[in-house]
Amino acid sequence: MAFSRHAHVTFSLALTASIAAVAAASAQSVERLMIVSVLDADGAPVTGLAAADFEIREDDAAREVLRVDSAGAGRQIAVLVDTSEAAVRVASGFRRGLSAFVDAMHGDNQISIISFGGAPRILAPSTSDGERLREGVGRIFPQSGQAAYMLDAVYEVAEGFDRRGADRPVMVVLTTEGTDYSNRRARQVLERIDESGAAFYALSVEARRAAFGIGRPTGAFGGGFDARQQEFERDLVLSRGTAGTGGRHRDLLASSAVERALLDLAAELRNQYLVAYSRPDSLIPPEEVTVTVNGSGLTARGIVLSTQENRNR
């Protein structure tokens, strides 16, 4: 059968256009990485899942899941501990729980310990050395006459993560319900957490609220100290900061529950997934990224890596 020259040219142009379209589509897609926790109905980590078990959506648009691996280790974990006067009945529980957490997580993760009874103070600088971390845990004692400065401590730690370009930052806060005297507003703290790319976890232990006769300096809230407003600001950080970063906030009735809760957290972190997915290359990032998994009673939470590990891809 004879083909006309016109038909041959038309076919060639169509083929060229098709190849160009495929190449353009490929060039316009980028790979993103997400750290994901998957827990069953009892809160235990779920292992052995494959790419087909995950669904990722950006602003309700489904994205292709490329592969799933173990997230491994290599985290930068900052533990922030309430050492205010309100922690007098729970400090021993904090020490026991953190000792167990350090034993479970040191070695292949960098861990630091910061107190926030009074101005934030480093009890153990970032290290994987278990002995140095246990020494830091041994320095956790309530400070008489001191209020908590949790929001200020969270802000400073998140700022440090951002400044150092931490690849896999994690923040763990152990706090009571005592009065918080921070100068930072929740909005400032939440923005700083988001900029740092940190996953934010918090354990709150019920404790008798302490009343302080300490003079409150003027600052973010004007001339007087508004305890209700400050409580609202703190609770907002604990709820939104954890929910928006793939973390979790747990309320505990007694300090004796801290050790179990921190061991649960260690198990969750050790069994996280590194999920790679494809998204269009766009200058405008999505407002929301959600992850779900197949399976009854399973819940998934995650955070997109925003540091060099993603930018290199």
Short synopsis of the structure:
The protein has helices at residues 5-27, 91-105, 130-137, 150-164, 186-196, 227-243, 258-270, 308-311, and strands at 29-39, 54-58, 61-70, 76-81, 110-115, 121-127, 169-176, 199-205, 249-252, 273-280, 289-293, 299-304.
| Mean pLDDT over all positions | 88
Strand composition percent: 25-35%
Give the ordered list of helices and strands: HEEEEHEEHHEHEHEHEEEH
Overall CATH class of the largest domain: Alpha Beta
* Oligomer type: single chain
What is the helix fraction of residues, given as a range? 25-40%
* Strand ordering within the main sheet: 11-2-3-10-1-12
Low-confidence stretches: 5-13, 19-26, 210-223
Q: Give the domain tally.
A: 2
Report how far apart the termini are.
Answer: 49 Å
The description of the largest β-sheet is:
6 strands, antiparallel
Look at the helices and sheets and give the structural class: alpha/beta
Secondary structure tally, helices: 8
CATH architecture of the largest domain: 3-Layer(aba) Sandwich
Q: Would you report the number of β strands? A: 12
CATH fold category name of the largest domain: Rossmann fold
Shape: globular
